[in-house]
Automatic annotation (TrEMBL):
CDD domains: SDR_c (cd05233). Keywords: Oxidoreductase. InterPro entries: NAD(P)-bd_dom_sf, SDR_DHRS6-like, SDR_fam. This is SDR family oxidoreductase. Belongs to the short-chain dehydrogenases/reductases (SDR) family. Signal peptide: none annotated. It comes from the Bacteria.
Length: 237
C-alpha cells in the first residue's frame, strides 16, 4: 500500500531528489516550496503523479492552510534551508543571525508543529541539518549553531512526539543549488576543494542524501538519530 509523503522544501536540491526517489518507490508525494517558478520546474521533472503547492514555511497562517488542504498523510520531510552563511565573527551581523534562524530553524520547527493535526499518529518526521553542526572551522559560527540546534531539536522531538518517529539528516558538502551564492567561476573549485581532505575526496550528490532520507522515512524502528551523510568529512583532520 502506497504512503503519502509531504516534502517541504521539495522543489530543488536534496528535497527534489528525495521527491523523485520516494515517487519511484511508489509513494504519493506532495512537494512545497516558496518559489512558484521552482515549483513549476520541479513538477515538470516529477510528473503528473506528484502534487505541489507554494508555501512560505515561516508563515504560520500559510502552514495551517497548507496542511488543511493536504489532509491526512504518513510522513513529513523538511529540507528548508537558506543559502550561504559562511561568515567570520568579525563580519557577523544581527541580520545574518536572523536570516539563518528565520530561514531554517524557525520554518522547520513551525512546519512540524503545523503538521501534527494531519500527520499519521505513528508516522515520521525527517529534518535536514548539516555537518557544520559538528565542525569547528572558522566562519561556521552561524551555520554550525543553526544546524546543531535543529539536530538537537530532532532528538528531543523523538521523545516528545512519540510514537511518531523524528530523525535528522546531517549532510556534508553536497553539490546542490545551496552553493549558488558563490560566483559561478569559483563555485566548482570551492565545492571540490572543501572535500579534499575527506576520505571519499568528492562532494556528495543530492540523490545520495535522498537514499538516506528514504531509509529514515521507511525504517519503522529508527527514531531520535542524526544520520551523517558526509563522505567521511567528520573524520577529516
Amino acid at each position: 500500500m502506497s504512503e503519502r509523503v509531504v516534502i517541504v522544501g521539495g522543489t530543488s536540491g536534496i528535497g527534489l531528489a528525495t521527491a523523485e526517489l520516494l515517487r519511484d518507490r511508489g509513494n504519493r508525494v506532495v512537494v512545497a516550496g516558496r518559489s512558484a517558478d521552482r515549483l513549476e520546474a520541479a513538477l515538470k521533472v516529477l510528473g503528473d503523479g506528484v502534487e505541489g503547492r507554494t508555501l512560505d514555511a515561516s508563515d504560520e497562517g500559510q502552514l495551517a492552510e497548507f496542511f488543511a488542504e493536504v489532509g491526512p498523510f504518513d510522513h513529513l520531510v523538511v529540507t528548508v534551508s537558506p543559502r550561504g552563511g559562511i561568515t567570520p565573527l568579525l563580519e557577523l551581523t544581527a541580520a545574518e543571525l536572523r536570516r539563518h534562524s528565520e530561514g531554517k530553524l524557525i520554518p522547520q520547527l513551525l512546519t512540524v508543529k503545523a503538521a501534527l493535526e494531519t500527520l499519521r499518529a505513528d508516522g515520521s518526521v525527517t529534518l535536514l541539518g548539516a555537518a557544520s553542526s559538528q565542525m569547528s572551522a572558522p566562519g561556521l559560527t552561524v551555520l554550525g549553531s543553526s544546524n546543531a540546534a535543529l539536530e538537537t531539536a530532532a532528538r528531543i522531538l523523538a521523545v516528545e512526539l512519540a510514537p511518531r518517529r523524528v530523525n535528522a539528516l546531517s549532510p556534508g558538502v553536497i553539490d546542490t543549488p545551496w552553493w549558488d551564492w558563490l560566483p559561478e567561476e569559483n563555485r566548482g573549485a570551492v565545492v571540490n576543494g572543501a572535500c579534499t581532505n575527506t576520505p571519499l575526496g568528492r562532494p556528495g550528490r543530492p540523490e545520495e542524501v535522498a537514499h538516506a532520507i528514504a531509509f529514515l522515512v521507511e525504517n519503522a524502528y529508527t527514531t531520535g538519530i542524526v544520520l551523517p551523510v558526509d563522505g567521511g568529512g567528520r573524520l577529516a583532520s
